[in-house]
Amino acid sequence: MEAVPRMPMIWLDLKEAGEFAFNAAVKKSAVSVPRDFEGCSTLRKYLGQLHFLQSRIPMGHGQDAAVPVTWTEIFSGKAVTHEDIKYEQACVLYNLGALHSMLGAMDKRVSEECAAGAFTYLRDHFPHSYSVDMSHQILSLNINLMLGQAQECLLEKSMLDNRKSFLVARISAQVVDYYKEACRALENSETASLLGKIQKDWKKLVQMKIYYFAAVAHLHMGKQAEEQQKFGERVIYFQSALDKLNEAIKLAKGQPETVQEALRFTMDVIGGKYNSAKKDNDFIYHEAVPALDTLQSVKGAPLVKALPVNPTDPAVTGPDIFAKLVPMAAHEASSLYSEEKAKLLRDVMAKIEAKNEVLDQFMDSMQLDPETVDNLDMYNHIPPVLMEKCAALSVRPDTVRNLVQSMQVLSGVFTDVEASLKEIQDLLEEDEAQERKLQELLGRVPPAPGSPPGLAEVSKECSKYLELHEKASFTNTELHRAMNLHLGNLRLLGGPLEQVRAALPTPTLSEDDKQVLQNLKHILAKVQEMRDQRMSLEQQLREMIQKDDITTSLVTTDRSEMKKLFEEQLKKYDQLKVYLEQNLAAQENVLKALTDANVKYAAVRKALAEVEHKWNTTVQTLVASYEAYEDLMKKSQEGKDFYTDLEGKAAKLLERARAACQASEAHRQQLLERELKKQPPPRPTAPKPPMQKKPLD
């Protein structure tokens, strides 16, 4: 896999700057940076100086020295203006991340550092209401994309360095985890509406990469099994890798040639590995091949580093050009307080993410969708596809009658042909019987000379027509069977809608079953309520942290009192933290209740699944009958045309048969008369003498 062609990566456009009442030369050098690492350095320096400036001069939103700041929003191309210097900082941070993404996509891909740091700092330290391209959803998407692509670079480097198979598998699994998070963000309706057209392209690429790198992970798990001489495990891992790669290939339609080359190369590697492993196991090792779900899942190893952003680091920002304007102590204290807030947020988010991971895994295993947990509503309506067929037949009320009449006409012609051919057969058989009688009478076995030749031709042609009739008879029988199969369904579709609805299966639930369903839906609603409350509390915490600026207090506070001030200020978050702790603690009880409810739901779920299967089958059968109508009519017409032609030929042949039989009979009479003339008349016999009467005594 070391020589596998590289997959393309996503990079972000830079925002364009507009109005900002700042030194023109400084502004120009900061917004028109070169597309290289020197440009990144320039943006970091500019960002740091803006931070120094805003900590000394009241240029924030609603402050005395605030001036208009204008930047172009990426997705709409519209100019967005805010009188807030933090907006300038936020846009510079965005461009720093975007420039890193651009350079990463073009780089040799040997560095684990990535652009996620700039977007993470922007998400955690700035308001999300400046513009849609810097909303919380878009920034979270960018972070996961950048982390995934950085981990992808690390994976390429690890394969080039021939690192151990298990480590490569874990690195690849982490690529999948990051891209799954990005895909969830892309599937969010709000994110999709913000991204517009580009969302589909990104989603297709990310979904394809999820399956591709899952295949790479299982390929290397198979290699590890091979190294450990676990030949049964090797087969199943390579099989799984092949399955996932095939899914990636399906999703790669429309992707550039570089993607297709990578997929073909990987298919050669995995396909070869699988075929070889299976053959060896079948003929040499004979090890049992375990089910994939019985093996330990591959846990990702997040080894990439987000480039840290520290606006006050002098090694990055250079000397503070505003150092004389505001006491540095206040600035340093503000940074320390920001770090305390960031630490608080990290601690809370670690707990939230841990609980969310458990919840997501649990819900995935349950496969319970609150919206379709019972599907009972669908049985109250005729599905649109069936309504469409009913509507089509309602404007064609003669559909069934036309089909029946067409088949009746076909049957009539069929019967006429059969009768004609039967009569011809009877005539030929009668003639043959008369011929045998004549031969017996005359004492001759060979046919008499001068017999009419037409009968042999009639017999030959009759045999040909009988063969055609026999073949067509099977087709005709099948056509009638098909018509009888679909006729009832067509009558149903053309009848009242109430009858159609009554023909569709519906579930029959007892009161206990309904109570089980209601209880399950209630608990699922509780799960969603818990999720929503958790997201709301998290959002409140983030917004509260972003708005929490105690710079004014810091300027007037003695350095020795800073720690005490921090502690007092951080108490404002205690109530939110309590609510979040209660929410997280409630999860265990909610999931236990859901488990119990799901156990009771199992029988109801099975019954509903069976009814749904029957319902779908019935719908498909009715639709198939509608779609079969035109074909039946066409074949019926073809049958009528065939038998009409055969009927004409059979009628003509019958006339010929009659004429030939009459001629044959006449010929036999002539022979009989000739034979009778040749025979001598019968000899006269002498009369017997009269009996003498006995004289009377």
UniProtKB/TrEMBL annotation:
**Comp. bias intervals (Basic and acidic residues):** 665-678
Query: Coiled coil as a keyword?
Result: yes
One short Pfam name that applies is ALIX_LYPXL_bnd
Matching entries from Gene3D superfamilies are given as:
alix/aip1 in complex with the ypdl late domain, alix/aip1 like domains
InterPro entries, A to Z = ALIX_V_dom (IPR025304), BRO1_dom (IPR004328), BRO1_sf (IPR038499)
Report any one BP term from Gene Ontology: early endosome to late endosome transport
- Gene Ontology cellular component? endosome
Coiled-coil region(s) at which residues?
414-444, 520-547
What are the subcellular locations of this protein? Cytoplasm; Endosome
The yes or no answer to whether the keyword Cytoplasm is present is yes
Start and end residues of each BRO1 domain:
27-359
Which keywords does this chain's UniProt record carry?
Coiled coil, Cytoplasm, Endosome
What are the start and end residues of every segment in region (Disordered)? 664-697
In which domain of life is the source organism classified? Eukaryota
Name where it mostly resides: cytoplasm
Q: Where is the composition biased (Pro residues)?
A: 679-697
The name this protein carries in UniProt is PTN23 phosphatase
* Organism, as annotated: Cinclus mexicanus (American dipper)
